[in-house]
Each structure stands twice: as C-alpha cells, then as structure tokens.
Amino acid sequence: MNYKSAIYPGSFYPWHEGHTDILEKAFKIFDEITICRMVNPDKDLGNDKTIDCTDLFDKLVLNGPFDTGLQIVGHSGLLIDAVNEYHAHAVIRGLRNSTDFEYEKNLQYNYEDLGLVVPVIYLISDRKLVHVSSSAKRALKKYNKQ
Fold it and tell me: How far from 76 is each of 35, 41, 73, 122, 146, CA to CA, in Å?
C-alpha cells in the first residue's frame, strides 16, 4: 500500500546521515514527506531554542538529493497537532536498535492516548549507521572533532 504523505518528526539537531537513510527509505513508500523539526524538551540544545529549518532546506533540497515531495517545517507543539496541521497519513520513525524500539513503542502508546489515529511506520537504519546519533554528533562538535 502506498501512502500519499507522511510526517517525519524529530529535533534533528544536527541532521546526520542516519536521518538521510531513513528519509530515503521513506520515499520508497510515500509520495510526500514533511520533515517536522520539533523541540524536544529532554534534549539540551544549549541556547538554541528556535526551530530554524534553513540548514535542513539547504542540505536536503538546495544542495541535496531531494527536490520534489519534500517539505521542511518547524513545529513547537505536539506531534498529533503537526499530523493534523500537515494532513499526514502516517508518521515515520527510525530505529537503530532494541533500545530505540522500546523508547518508540512507549512513545507511540502516548501518541495513541492523545488521539493519534494514523499509523506509525518504523524504518530500520542501515547497519553501517547504527552507531550514528545526534547526541554523539553534538558531543564531537564540542571538541571540534566533527
């Protein structure tokens, strides 16, 4: 079954090759994808509390492989509100390992408690990217190793 549109939510701070891998896989299922950069109150983003999507647009659309079917937005509310606002037929989430699965499973239950009715589609990252995370990228950046 091909779905028309999906939303790919996350803080994406920073965007990395693991996110691109999931996005590429998602485009094999969906015609249109909205990357929804959201604030995660559990992640320390330093002084950057804004939802600026310029870097993602430049990386993925202007200088990247995705020129059609991709929308990039910022959203400061709940995921269910973004799903409704952007008329998504599904939610995309990436999984690297069993820890991600357990986290995402509980998150999905919370989404459902809030009234989410669209399916959540889990895509497994490429095995070469299992170690890649935004947290690790941020840590390396602090030491100018990125």
Answer: 13, 10, 10, 23, 28
Pairing of strands 30-38, 120-124: unpaired
Report the greatest alpha carbon distance in the chain: 45
In the chain, the amino acid numbered 121 is I
Distance in angstroms (rounded) separating the CA atoms of residues 19 and 69: 16
For residues 114 and 47, the model is more confident at: 114
Which residues span the domain enclosing 40? 3-142
CATH number for position 52: 3.40.50.620
Domain count, the chain: 1
Across the chain, mean pLDDT equals: 82
Q: What are phi and psi of 98, to 5 degrees?
A: -70, -30
Q: What is the pLDDT of residues 31-49, one digit of tens each?
A: 999 999 988 766 655 444 4
Contact 78, 115 (CB under 8 A): no
pTM of the complete model beyond 0.85: no
Contact of 103 with 109, CB cutoff 8 Å: no
